[in-house]
């Protein structure tokens, strides 16, 4: 099963241009993309019931909480449901006990006012389950639509099978559902297709991939932070000895980090004349590929390219560094070794002079569309989504994520919710399934290690100094939807061959030519045609 860390990794900045755009694709030639760019998004109104210890910012800085708010406030006025609701979602944890034998699920239903009947898929297999239900005569009320699992023909599918929610959510209409209004415009863009809003988005961290290293390992060479690519190379060589290795074998993810040091753009670069240049077309990225090949030849990558998860080996020191999504990924390591707080690499110029970049992520993991229904039923489902989007620190957030005090959770000495033994059995799979289907905006919170929150917050501030966003995020290309994943996979296959020495660097240009003729040039034209004038120039 793919891990949640791995799932989030493949929805990060490195692939946002080719996959997430597919979920908002209306087809440039049909006018859907233009309509999407002109749609009035839901009015944003931040939830004002709580004050974080460390405030967030429009730049993407996530708010931080050092402890759970002492008096959780209610964010809804009444239970949202009078009738049972069926939903398809996915879990990236062990599936939970079924509703009939899961007291936490039952208490959630009691709080909702009626049963929430979940069909919970896993990966691999979710697209097949989605397709089976889609083809049936009886759709569930809600079906989570992932951004990266290859579900085809998104636009026609939504038009044929699901409810257009634009009139209920566009502009000030969303204010009837305050928790949905507290979702940021960047999150809503994911749920826009053909100029219409089709569901509730699922926010995640706005930060993209980062390199993290075990500080105990890197202390041997003066620490993880570096000033030049040559310095990093030398440290990697010193840490690699045929048993221990400096870098995990996820070559494309590591290459993403190197590209930032060489100044490669976040998927697309906006030129002075408003034309677009793709990441693959830049000398910056090609130089990063050459650098990665040099590292591979020096035998600093862990040699098993099929390694599913490097985290345990990073914890035990066999691998010194790996790539995860966002600074909050430190929790993955704490879970395995409570004494370990990993370091996060801050991007640097490859030669000590050039300006590095840091690629921000897309900030969502898909959206959840509604089956077509009458207005009363649609408003009931929207009220459910509003409840399940309750912000961190609210009573509804506690019910969704921790259950009932004294049963699934108790308060520790600092009044933070901590799962009981029963909670650890009932909650993880259920909470994972609920979070995948619907979520509030993300925050930084680790009750066991409040100092981690401060460190992560400080790291985010450092990364934001170099932040670059994908300029095409929120704009759409029919070709990207249909061909983007295929031509990207083919190009990456060649890149991996170059890095691992199976092909020479000369193969890069031929692979790029195939990428361009196979759809890359057409994607560029379609994205450029709907690029908002507010998007700034990012290169020349």
Automatic annotation (TrEMBL):
Domain of life: Bacteria
Keywords: Signal
Signal peptide: 1-21
Keyword Signal recorded: yes
PROSITE patterns: PROKAR_LIPOPROTEIN, TAT
Family listed: Belongs to the bacterial solute-binding protein 1 family.
Protein name, per record: Putative aldouronate transport system substrate-binding protein
Organism: Kribbella solani
